[in-house]
Every structure is written in structure tokens, then in C-alpha cells.
Amino acid sequence: MNGAQSLIRTLVDAGVDVCFSNPGTSEMHFVAALDSVPEMRGVLGLAEGVVTGAADGYARIAGKPAVTLLHLGPGLGNGLANLHNARRAHTPIVNVIGDHATYHKRYDAPLESDIDSVAGTLGGWLRRSDSTADVGADAAAAVAAAQDPPGRVATLILPADVSWGDGGKPCAAVPPRAPKAVSETTVKQVAEVFRTGEPVALLLGGAACREPGLRAASRIAAATGAKPFIETFPARLERGAGLPAIERLGYLAEQVAYQLDGIKHVVVAGTKAPVSFFAYPGKASDLVPDGAQVHTLATLDEDVVAALEGVAGIVAADTEPVLAPAERPELPTGELTAQNWVQVIGALLPEGAIVSDETNTSGLLLPGATAGAPRHDVLTLTGGAIGQGIPVATGAAVAAPDRPVVNLEADGSALYTISALWTQARENLNVTTVILNNRAYAILRMELQRVGAEGSGPKAKSLLDLSTPDIDFVRIAEGMGVPASRATTAEELAEQFARALAEPGPHLIDAAIPPLL
Amino acid sequence: MNGAQSLIRTLVDAGVDVCFSNPGTSEMHFVAALDSVPEMRGVLGLAEGVVTGAADGYARIAGKPAVTLLHLGPGLGNGLANLHNARRAHTPIVNVIGDHATYHKRYDAPLESDIDSVAGTLGGWLRRSDSTADVGADAAAAVAAAQDPPGRVATLILPADVSWGDGGKPCAAVPPRAPKAVSETTVKQVAEVFRTGEPVALLLGGAACREPGLRAASRIAAATGAKPFIETFPARLERGAGLPAIERLGYLAEQVAYQLDGIKHVVVAGTKAPVSFFAYPGKASDLVPDGAQVHTLATLDEDVVAALEGVAGIVAADTEPVLAPAERPELPTGELTAQNWVQVIGALLPEGAIVSDETNTSGLLLPGATAGAPRHDVLTLTGGAIGQGIPVATGAAVAAPDRPVVNLEADGSALYTISALWTQARENLNVTTVILNNRAYAILRMELQRVGAEGSGPKAKSLLDLSTPDIDFVRIAEGMGVPASRATTAEELAEQFARALAEPGPHLIDAAIPPLL
């Protein structure tokens, strides 16, 4: 058994049985070994950002890591942005990067580069397999590290000769650790905060964004008058009819200032205290209101759901959560607008949908329109590195082949990793992509004003414009094997969206939406 | 004057007047400042690999750097593969990366990451601007460092508040250094090597790959019987009728072993001694024949052309170079094959063309077919990180608007940075892209065998297959605003290629070529 075979066998035995890959010569033994371990599924991406984003989406839904296969330093570079998003989502990923043979590195061949330093910036777990006999144990350690709460990117660098060498030994899975328990003292202290009678905000993140955490938070809020919020960009948020509808903290500092106005205590549960996404001249970076106190109920590696339930047991023992009623918007009519496209989605979103949301400015009104839709999961852009939505949808569909995946995608963001559509076609994945095509980097038009860049003229505006020439996503999707159509009215969007959901396999709708702002 | 304005003013004063950019919020003041310095041209790329690859292509043709504008760590990650290729090409690039405001970094906002460590792996020049007053001087230093022989990526990290702050001071250009002179002693010693009567190979790289260096090398070879070779992947190679036709060293170790068979001395001039691109089980990494001596005539930062002319003056004072006659292949007929498509290119390549060559396996027979075509420049994949050809062609066309640019591009490689086509349409660049569409990662099929990965079965082969579904580059190009057509016969390719060259603006031809191997 060679090193590659021991690696894949170990991964499969640890429950990691999907490999998103974009291999090169140094990974050929890994590729060849796929045939000797039939349980491992190989999914090809045509660019590494597709591979890493798909692994992120897969794990958010599957609840366990996939393995990525990247080619040397440039492959890691191409995949780095979506690994950054995965890092911010605390997504478990076993990130295998092939390297030159150990004895070949000193020759500084053209593809030689410093993989370790680049991978080190991901701040997760990082190891280089030095010998074939160790590969199995390294792989088992990588799987455990990836899943160690709250989850991380575990990178294993695999030199070609270590991969092709004989003497590989599969290794038994190392059970991942459970989240740490929050102390009873902390639970009681935080419960007291809710009893002060002063205005409290309860900020939820991580595992708290799923049903049990949301229910506990809703009970606390209902019993004490505290205002609950979801962190701005949750990795996976459960919502819809029958679940507590809890508002997300806004992207803009101005929104957050409004949401937290008058708050004296911010209780953070499975997330961190809010900070501004970017700095703006003369505005604060720390979004905790002046004079408010921050209390940590649970850090990211602690059992936030049990802690919330503990607090609820103290302050809301007899209080039920407030659940969203089942209610949908009416189907709108007329030209598509920034207001009515979200009503189409709200009216038609199917039961059990997974929504990969990279709508940026176009999606500002989406949460209101879908709060009473059937239960669904929302996967958001956790790290701000655009180009995440299509790959995440792709990976989510691999993880949950029986659930409809809806990818709501800004035009500018779509272009970074557009070839993920081809993977959707190849794997016949049930993904319906709606491109919110406002023909601009609309968010940057807004930011150009917000950063106070006065005096910007035609050259600056031109660099934020995507209309010369217009991008035809119908043709691009068809070129990658995905059936596609264009919608310019609400009726067209509704008809095309319903049809796409009813048919198996991927579809794309290029929706002409004017900019919101 | 703010920091961004002082930066752009300084760059323009130093002759750097093209900015390839994919900006975000932290770069909005740079974008705004473009309107206050009219000499700077902003060129938008829809992904950072387009931006960095275009800057590489631009500088290879313009002979001076462009500036890139990237957004934070993820933007650098997306652009890293083509910066790696630029590093291997010794291309001067002023690589500006926006960062969060200095005071914002400690909040660990979602887009925070370790930019410095990733940029550090490029091994070039790296500086972080700490104060607005220093930005001008930092920019001047970056331009000088980028151009310091042999050329490099000079990265300037620009925090948002340093960019928007008042008190920017433009700085006068720092003249770049000239290449170091090779000592007369070295020239004489190396000249003696050519007089030993033993078999000598003369390996040319860097500046030696343009007319004066090629002529000197050809004289040396003609006078002494030495075998001249071009390094495997030159950044810019001048060739065609009226220039010496010097063979490139092969990509495969087996080819190089054949080319260097019996050689006793390898003289390297503006490059390094040959090494294998990858390691293969049981094969040598060092491609210098056993027992042969390596002699360095000129290192990468030395004046290799003067050194070659010095040697030629000693050993070939009365010898003329051997120049390629003007001769083209006949236009072929019938179904396209791996053999005949290169004849179409050879028959029709226009005078003064710039060829961006990312043909990989499909291009093995190209050099023979174009050796007697009119004079042209060839830009190759210097670092092995695929996804370079379309961006490099884009940048080259910006640098030389009056020259026809021909991009010969493998299908698999094209998908990494396909949105460069949109930039070609937006800027109305004269680029004719021919996709060699063999519906496979054909090079990896070959490598799967070469690395000895026996026992590879259907799963492995499937991961190297691009035919399920077929990729329709005509539709993709049209979706990005580039007129396109499909060729399946030699006649169609010839007709479409000639027409594309005759019309202004970009065109794409999706050429159905069976795999060579």
C-alpha cells in the first residue's frame, strides 16, 4: 500500500468520503488511489476556488469535513480566498496540498514555492507528511483537528514521493472532541445580566444559529425583553415557519448602531462582540455602544446551545419561544425591482431548501420576504471574500442530494468562480442559481461614498461598472452545460424559478435587477 | 493631497501609467484618486488572477511595470498563481494591496488576514506603508525595486487610512539600476570552454532570448559547433524569419536527456542549469548529463547580452549568425488534428504578432511550424501555474495596441481565468484566442503514466476528463462580449483565424483538437 492509498483509506474510515479536487502531476498517485478505495467520491473542480468553496458548503450541511486536493503553492493560492471564508465559518476541512518530492525541492523547479507559509496564514492545523509510514496517522490527526471545536481548516502537505512510496499504514479515526461545557457559574452570572432590567442584546453565532439555540434564545428574549440578534454572517442559519425569526445584525455600522441603540449589555453566545466590517474615516470600528458591557456566555469552542438552554431554564422556565408563522408574500407582477425579486423567492422557496446567499446589496430585503417561508438553511459569506456562493451551493448539493439548493448570487461575485457551474452539470446537482444582475459592483458604488472618497469622477465610476459589455450569464451557463434563462419581469422570474426547482439538475436564471442604491 | 493621490502621481512620474485592478472597499480612495491623475489608465479585471496575469503580460512587452490593485489577503490569494508565474519570469510588477486601516486591524474583522506572510512568499520586495507622508517615497522605491535586474514583484501594502490621510508627498523616480557587467575574466574563461573541442551546450534565458543575444549565441554555435538552446519556458522569446531559430529545451526530462546527450559542458547564460519540472520515481531531478560541467557566463542579474557578444567576439569574430529563412507551412485541409492546427497558425501568423502560448501538450509541434513565420514574440508559462495565457495576452495587448496578439490556449487552463475575455471586450483589445479544446487535462493523462501510477482506473481517468459535459467556449466567450466561432476542420480554423485577425477587437475560436497523446 502506498502513501496515497493509506491516506484515502484513513480518511474514509474516519467518515471523510468526498474529495473535491483540482489535481496536478504531484497529486497523480492520490488520483490513482481513488480507484483502490471505492468509498471515496472524487468531485472535480476546474479551479481551486471552486474546490475549496465546495468543501466549505459541503461541511456546513454534512456536519463533517470533505477533503480538498490542491496542486502545490499556486493551487493553494487559487483556493485561498474560499479557505479564508471557511476559516471564518469555522468549517472543518481536510486540506491536502501536493508538493514536489522531498528530494526535488532543493532544485527550485518552476512550481516550487513556500506552501507552508501561505497555509500558515489560515491559522488552523498544519502538518507536512515526512514519511510514507506516517501518512495514515497524519491524515487521522488532520480529520480530528479539522473537527476539533469550533472547526478549522486542517492542512496536510503531501510530498509526491511520500505519496508514491510503499509502506503506507492506514490509521484508525481519532474521535473528535466535544465542545467544552460552559460553567454553571458563567450561566448563572449571565442569567443575572438579563435580570438587571437594563436593555440587553443577545448576539448568537455558530451552533446557536440552529433550532435548539434559536428556541432557547427566543425564550430568553420573550421572558426578559432582551433583543436577540444573529451574527452578521452566520455559517449556517436555520429559519422559516415554525422557527424563531431572529434578525441578523446589519452589515453597515449605521445599521448596527440603530439595532443596538440604547443597549447597556451585549451578551455574546458562540460569536464575538460586533466590529465594523471595514474602517471608515471618523467612524468607530468597535460597534458595541459606548458604555455598554460585553458578557461572554460561550466562546466559539464551547457548548453554546447547552449554555443558552441553561440561561433559559433560569430566566424563562415557563416561557415558550416565539415562532414565525407560515406566511409568504404574494407573487408580484411587473418589471423586476430590488424590492419585488425577493418576494418571488419568498413566495416559492421550497420546503427544506438550502439557500447559498451571496446577494450582497441586492439581498438587503431578502430576510423579510423569506421569514415565513418553509424551513430552510441559509449559508452566508462568512469571510467577505467574494466568489463563494456558487461553490458553496455546489458543495451543499453534494452533501444533501435530496434537498433543493437555491443560490442567490450577485453578478460581480459570480465571475470569480463561475466554473463551479460545470461541476454542477457534471454531478447533476439540484442547484438553482439566480444571478442578481445589476451590471455593477453595486456595493462598491455605495462604499465609494461611505468612505468619503469625494471627487470621484468617471474613471472611478467606470471601475465599478459591469455593463460595458453586459455579461450574459445565460450564455456562460449554457457554455458550461447548465440550462439557463433570462428574467426581466417578476412573472418571468417566478415561472422560471418554479420550473427550475421542478426539474432535476442545475439551472441558472439571469435576473435583470436594478441596483438597490 | 491624500496618500492615494501621492501614490498614483509618483507612479506616473516614474513611467508606470497602467493600473490593472480589482478593488474593494479598502481601495476606494485609490480608485477615486484615478480621476485626479489623468495619466494613469485603470483597467478592470473581474478576478485577481486576471489582474496579475495581465500585469505580467504588459511588462513583458512594455519593458516596464504596470501597477496591480488587489483587495486585502483574499485578493492577493486569488492573484498569487499569476504572481508566481511573474516571479519566475522576473517580470517587474508594482503590486499594491489595500489593507484595513491601521487602527482597524486589531479588531480582526472578517476580511482580516496575514497579507505580509503570503506576499513574503513571492521573494521579491515587500513594504507596508505606515504613514501618508511616506507613501510617495515607498511607491518610488517599489518601482525601482521592481525594475532592479532581473526584475521582480514589488509589493506595497497600503492601509486604508494611510491612503485616505492628508499629507501625501509625491516622490521623484529613483532610476533603476542597470544589469551588472560580467567580468572580462569570466568572458575569457567561458570562451575557452567553447575551444576545448568537447561538446558544449549553450543555454540561454532572460534577455538573451531577444535578437542581440540570439545573434551572438548563433555566431558562437556556428563557429564552435556548440549546441544552443533556449530555456524551457522563456518570459519573452523573439523568433521568426530573419532571426536565429534556436530550439527550446524540452519540458520532459526524456526530451532534455536526448537534447543534451553526450554534452560535456553546459554554459548557462541568463538562466540556471536545467532541472526536471517534476520529480518522477527513479528518475533524476538534475538534468545536467552525468559528468558534464556547468559554467555560468551570466547570472540572472548580469548583462547577459554583452557577455554573449564578448564571447562571440573571441570565438566567432568573423562568423555570421544563422538566420531562419522566411518559409511557412502550406495551409492544411481536413479534420483538425494535433499535427495540422499548428500549420494553420504557421501559415497565417501575422508580422509582429505577440503569441501568448499556453498550449501545453497541444503545442508540442508549434515551434517547428512557426520558425519561418514573420517575426513574432512568444510569451510562455514561466512558472507552471496554469491560467496564465488569457490574462497575459490581455496585458500584452494593452502594452502594444498596434500589434496583433494571438493567444493559443489549452481548454483546461483557460477556465481558471476565463473572465479576462471580458476585459478584452471592454478595452477592445486586438487579441485572437484559439482554444485548443481536446476536452481533457491531457497533460495529466500523460503524467499519470509517467509518474508510474499504475492501476489507475475509471475514477482516476474521470478526474482528468473535461467532456462530461463538453465545455462550449463559443457561448462562454459570447457571454463575456467576445465574438466567437467553432472550428472542426483546418479550413474552418484558417478562415476564422484570418477573419479574426483582420477585424479589430477580440475574437475567440473554439478549435476541436484531438489529444496529441
From TrEMBL, chains A, B:
Domain (Thiamine pyrophosphate enzyme N-terminal TPP-binding) ranges: 1-106
Keywords for this protein: Thiamine pyrophosphate
InterPro entries to which the protein is assigned, alphabetical: THDP-binding, Thiamin_PyroP_enz_TPP-bd_dom, TPP_enz, TPP_enzyme_TPP-bd
Highest taxon above the source species: Bacteria
Domain Thiamine pyrophosphate enzyme TPP-binding, residue spans: 376-510
Family: Belongs to the TPP enzyme family.
Name used for this protein in its record: Acetolactate synthase large subunit
